[in-house]
Amino acid sequence: MIMIQDVTVNITGTSRYNGKASDNAHVEMLLVTNEPVPAEKAWYVPSGVTVPQAVADIFQLANLSMYPQSEETLLAGIEDMKVQAESGNLEDVIKDAAKLMALSIMKKMSLVPIQGATNAYMLAYDYKLFPLKETPNVFELKVQLPFEGMDLAVPGQGGRGVRLTVITPIDINVDPVMTKGVDSAGNEVANEDMYTIAKAGRQVVSFEHHTDPFFFVRYSYNN
Q1: Contact predicate 167/200, CB 8 Å
Q2: Cβ–Cβ contacts within 10 Å for residue 125, how many?
Q3: Which of 8, 100, 159, 185 is most exposed, with minimal Cβ within 10 Å?
C-alpha cells in the first residue's frame, strides 16, 4: 500500500528550438509503501526515445499518454488486432497499434529501494511531450497517480496521498480550465495551486490528493 507518492515533473521548452516538434519532460518520483514491493512487480516506463511525428499523432488518436503502466494494461486487448482489422473496426486497431508502438519505446522496470531503506523508492525517467495535433502551440501533460496496481492508503491509515509538482517551460500560458485532476469518470476531484517564478519566467503547478486521479496540465506558447 502506498503511503505517499511525491512526483516532480520539469518540462523544458525544447519545442522553441526544434521546429515545435516536442518539449522534454523529466520526471522524478519518491514512492513510500507500508511494506516492500515484490521484486517481480514491474511497470513499463518511457525510455526517452524520440518518435516520428506520425507515431505521435497515432498516440494522440488513441489517447495514449506516456506514464508508467503495468504490462497487463499496456498489452490488454491487442490479441484480437487482426480480427478487429478484418471487421473494419479502425478505432480499436488504432488503439492496439498505439499500444504496440508504445511498448517499443518503453522499458520494463522494477522498483529498487533507495540505499538504506526497505520500502522507499526513487524512479526517474524522461519522455517527449508532443503538441496537440489540432493546436500545434498547445501541449498537455497527463499523469496517473498512484502507480497502477497499487492501493493508496487513506489518511486514517497513515497515508499522505499523492503529490504532483509540475515546473513549466519559460514564458508559457497555463490553461486554468484544462489544468485539473479528474477521476476515472471525468469528474474534477483535485484543484491545482499555481505560482509564478518571476525571475525565471516559469510557472509551478501543484496538486495534492488522497484518491486515484488523473492529472492534466495544459499550457501554450505565445509564438
Answers
A1: no
A2: 19
A3: 185
Distance from the first to the final alpha carbon of the chain: 45
- 83 vs 23, higher pLDDT: 23
Give the number of residues written for the chain: 223
CB-hemisphere CA count at 13 Å for 69? 19
CA separation, residue 53 to residues 18, 95, 98, 106, 127 (Å): 12, 17, 13, 17, 14
Answer yes or no: is pLDDT of 133 > 70: yes
Q: In what order do the strands lie in the sheet with 2-12?
A: 120-129, 23-33, 2-12, 161-167, 202-209, 193-197
Its pTM stands at 0.84
Half-sphere exposure of 64 (CA within 13 A, CB side): 26
Cα separations (Å) of 48 from 27, 124, 128?
Answer: 11, 11, 7
